[in-house]
Amino acid sequence: MDLLNALVAFANFVVVPATAYGAQLALGALGVTLIYGVLRFSNFAHGETMSFGAMVVVLVTTLFQSWGISLGPLPTALLALPFGILATAILLLTTDKVVYKFYRRVKAAPVMLVIVSTGVMFVMNGAVRMIIGTDDRRFADGERFLISARDFKTMTGLSEGLAIRTTQVITVVVAMITVAALFWFLNKTRTGKSMRAYSDNEDLALLSGINPERVVKITWLLVAALATIAGALYGLDKSYKPLIFQQLLLPVFAAAIVGGIGNPLGAIAGGFVIAFSEVTLTYAFKKVVTYLGPDSWAPDGLVQLLSTDYKFAVSFAILIIVLLFKPTGLFKGQSI
Amino acid sequence: MKKLLLATTAATMLTGAASAEEIKIGVMLGFTGPAESLAPDMFGGAKAAIAEASDSGMFLDGTTIAVVQGDSSCVDAAVSTAVADRFVTADGVSGIIGALCSGATIAALQNVAIPNGMVMISPSATSPALTSIEDNGLFFRASPSDARQGQVMAESLMEKGVTSVAVTYTNNDYGKGLADAFEASYTEMGGIVTINASHEDGKADYSAEVGALAAAGGDLLVVVGYLDQGGPGIIRAALDTGAFDMFHLPDAMIGQSIEDRFGDEIEGSTGQVPGSDSEGGDMLVPIGEANGYDATAPYAPESYDAGALMVLAMQAAGSTDPQVYKDKVFDVANAPGEMIYPGEIAKALEILAAGGEIDYVGGSAVELIEPGEAAGSYREIVVEGGKITTVGYR
Residues A98, A104, A107, A111: is their CA dihedral positive or negative? Predict the structure, then answer.
């Protein structure tokens, strides 16, 4: 019984939240990695792209709700996702045409593009704040819980509860579908193959007749879809707040680099590595230890490795360790 | 020459005695920043009290008072200092009402008011740090220190039989001050604080913070946060994971938006907010209506009282010189003397002019204790049927 209690407590506070968070990070990191692989620069505006996509989803969701359209137990935001992706795609293609295209033509150094993307980040950030304001918004509707902590306790008779929110399940399911679709696209379709060819060796790809502008355009479209889904899922699961996407940029980049930047599989692994380390290292294991050990072992302290204030420091530390010892990341990506 | 000198002296003395002069009082509040929604009604309160004195014609032989307004922000020390400096040097005010937040108040007090010998009365700064500042008797506040709130909170929880709690506080002067004050009182009374951890405002996800709080355990969770910032995020995460379903909420967590968000999900949760059951609060309502502000808004009564205390102290001293009237603030605020309620400022001015004594009660039952802050009475609330309900005063 105690063993079960310990497991449930651990699952409730570590496994469930970290899995949902990991899926959100993985989707974000996939976008970063795609841009790095194909366009060869670190896009610092990616966090704000997520924010923009999520904002459109929030606005469309509100509109749908006012019309009385809903998905029953599922959140209305899922219906609004395509509109968010569309708007973000238009935004990214316009940005590319107005800003990035010029730097590609003059063959600017990657560092210059990074600075340019930082500028784009500030512009997008300002635009989002002007459109929707800085307030916290919850736009999740439908059924809140798959299992609530109280129901779980009465069902199993355990003293620890396990809560699984609908949004957490949706996050993981949608992320799985998105990733599967992306991998199918990259590996099985002609366009996907030409993208990978372009990413592997630009000159050879050009020689074999691949149209670079088309590859760039498709990359932005994929990034728009990934960023909007990631941003909307994060907002759906937690709450939508324009200012937090800048904070989210660090774990997203850490995930991409830890996994091996430019490698889609690595981005997913990286997302979960970062999410689980952040949550596990800052979790206080007092309850778990109390349940597992004999009574005399019950600790006075919290058995917490790091205070939760240092959550972001965890992603930083992992980032530095990986860059020092394995610059190409866990899965072979490009070294930076 | 001698005659001319005499005439000049006589003339200066005449103006010194001041018939139908105009003086200025500066009101600086955080019109922008994390507490901006409180500022307009507080400004209304302070302005109403000052206008009441000015219009009565009894204030220092018919002297009128003009209000100068300033935005001190909430946490930006540079802005607050600049505004206070402008009040003193450019506007030539005789006293400052403000600021709203503790951070802004401390900055203006230390950088401007103390060096220039200017009296400052804050309606709402509650940081315990303000108690120990060496202020030369220049600083007063119409609100109690959070050291007092911590004590009230500890007493109230102890009486309910709650002996072990987890505490989370917003990581700033207010949050840390109140959480530490509470922990000190509560532990002294025999309670156990299982964890006293901070949270950052403005995040979307508090599951890690709540994980640590849940591991520490406790009968309930004390959330020392802001109701439009991280506080609701913590409560939401705690409810979702089943970590806590009872909460205790101090002043900055109590408001309509908590009812709207959680309703009966936090049934039975408790809290307290500065307030008193004196009839003064109700008497302010028509004054608020006449002046176009909400007199029952948080800290609006305290603002009215801050304005009233300043003009009454000037009247008692017969001078608008801060160095003179600073010593009279205690005299007008506390017994002995005739009790003065809101709307009776003219009467108070008359009594003081005749050399009598007053005991200003005002909208928040003001009782000043050393070193110049309100003794503090609190309204205790409980969430019943999804509504915040008053259960008593302490």
Answer: positive
Cβ-based contacts of A17 with chain B (< 8 Å): 207-208, 211
pLDDT in tens, B271-285: 988 877 778 888 999
Q: Is A139 on the interface with B (CB under 8 A)?
A: no
CATH architecture of B147-273+377-393: 3-Layer(aba) Sandwich (3.40)
Chain A residues with beta carbon closer than 8 angstroms to that of B197: 307-308
How far is it, in rounded angstroms, from Cα B189 to Cα A280?
Answer: 35
Query: 3-class SS at A233?
Result: helix
d(CA A87, CA B108): 47
B351-365, pLDDT tens digit by residue?
A: 999 989 999 998 888
Q: For B216, which of A150, A278, A302 is closest by C-beta distance?
A: A302
Q: How many domains does chain A have?
A: 1
Fold of B2-145+278-374: Rossmann fold (3.40.50)
Query: A250: domain CATH number?
Result: 1.10.3470
Q: Do residues A235 and A300 touch, judged by C-beta distance below 8 A?
A: no
Average pLDDT of each block of 10 consecutive residues along chain B (394 residues)? 55 48 93 79 94 92 93 88 95 92 91 94 90 91 90 92 93 86 93 90 84 88 86 90 90 82 88 81 90 86 94 93 93 90 92 91 87 86 88 85
Structure tokens at B299: 């800290």
